[in-house]
Amino acid sequence: MTGKYRKVAYYPGCALEGTGHAYNRSTTALGQALGLDLVELKNWNCCGAMEVKNLDPKLQTYLSARNLGIAEKMGFETVMAPCNGCYHNLKKAEYDLAHDPASRGLVGQLSQKAGHAAYEPGGVTTIHALDWIKEAIGEDGLRERVKHSLKGVKIANYYGCMYTRPRHIFPEKDKGPGSESTSKPHFMDDLLAAAGAECVDYPLKTACCGGAHTLSDSDTSTKLVLNLLTTAEACGADVIATECPTCHTGLEMHQVRAARVLGKRTRVKILYFTQLLGMALGLSARRVGVQENMSDACDLFREKGLGR
Amino acid sequence: MPIHEKSLIRPENLVTHEQLTLEGVDVSGHWSTFIRSRVITDYNEAMEEEIAALPGGEYIHRCWQCGSCTNSCTVNAVNPDFNPRYWIYLIRMGLEEELLRDKDIVWQCVSCNKCTYACPRDVNPEGVMKATAHWLELKGHTAKKPSMEFDEVFSEQVFATGKIEEGRVLRQFFARTGQSLFQDWLVALVRGLAIRRPIGLLARLAIASIFRPRTRGWSRARAAINEYLGEQETAQRRALGLEQRGSER
Description:
The structure holds 2 protein chains of 2 kinds. Chain A is α/β, with parallel strands linked by helices. Chain A folds into 2 domains: 7-128, Up-down Bundle (Glutathione S-transferase Yfyf (Class Pi), Chain A, domain 2); 147-304, Rossmann fold. Chain A has helices spanning 21-34, 51-55, 57-73, 84-99, 101-114, 129-136, 138-145, 187-194, 218-234, 245-262, 273-280, 298-304; strands spanning 7-10, 37-40, 78-81, 125-128, 154-158, 198-199, 239-242, 269-272. Chain B is mainly α. Chain B has helices spanning 47-52, 68-72, 74-78, 84-93, 96-100, 114-118, 125-138, 146-161, 166-176, 184-194, 199-210, 219-239; strands spanning 14-15, 21-22, 25-26, 34-35. In chain B, α8 packs across α9.
């Protein structure tokens, strides 16, 4: 326990209120179990995900700047976003506000018209749920608290695209030992290994699941996801651990779609890393929301004695 | 800019002569394959500037044609015709006809940002793909693509209420693209979920579909965003030499 991030602002985002609710549930349960306070941003708005950016990137910057402004107004220096999309967009907004006068100008203009103060860059630092646990508790802290070790569970850690790319919006990454890597991220591996799991060497950690076109170009997404699933199985993984609701839902959906449409069945389970850590800390499967996952991992839990 | 005239070596542009002697030299057969000569006169010199005027396309002029974007591309690995480096070359050269051969796949960029990560010149190829897809639609070369329908359904909700409700996005997207909600795999998915009775989740989703989630006091932000979007549309249509739309938006 480092004392860092004991109390941070929490930006769940739209997906965590809908299909990614299991992630919301397990993240807050994990925070409670570890004695970390999460204070939800008051009256936040959608970060615009990928879609608003496609229409106009500067508008995405405004949406995220509004949220960062709320965190600052609530007196927080740090906002934690568990969703890769939200996390990426807050980081991108921070970068663009500091480096692009046109984005800054538009945010100033829209904020004034919308009737709130314009967020100035440098006020709030955005972190991911992985940074949150890694910094606040750390591997040693986790090891001390593990009640049901994840021993014998083989995990492929999947980080997706938005957690590491493009690298210029993550100035704190790639800073040598102890920092996160944008080419071979390892924070999730480190945390789950501390909880006793066996993390397999998974070469597709930062490959794309096609989440941006999960519905508009399902065939491409199914191909990409099937590749992620079969590779995880070839690496010997029982579980793919995720840290993004869009990746998670995409993997679950296209696992079913691959079986139905292409006749390609895969058995690997898909769980949020917060669910796995929560169960390792002794929380029940229900408490971390596994009933809200589409990927049914109950037989695995029985086999490994998890989540009782 | 290096020469990458892929179009020259397409099968229809190659000629092999069974029997041919030129200036006393035998040039028969496969080893003396000829490329048909051609003269290009229809360069579209405005294309690069037009695409640079759309969001994401601003830095296309920086490209050195190193090919890092295509080399790292997720979609290229699935479909070799998806070639960002080549399209950037065509746009900068004004080879519109050649670009139009691929007009129906440009929208398939999945925004994984591997190209933007790899690009040594900060071209932002991912943004260029979006700008090019918009350009193709605005110019009337392609109909509205599914990804654009999705972006619009999603963004309209964000602009209207400050938040989205996923069920509504899904339903509206399927309705606008003329697809049934009762696709075999979607039904299987819902059935698989329902079997474990996630009562809390189902209740939440049902409530959210009736009482749409929204950000309080959003009306002024909505008005400001819509005003800005209107200005942007006018500016973009002007840059592309298109007629201004009437009283829309």
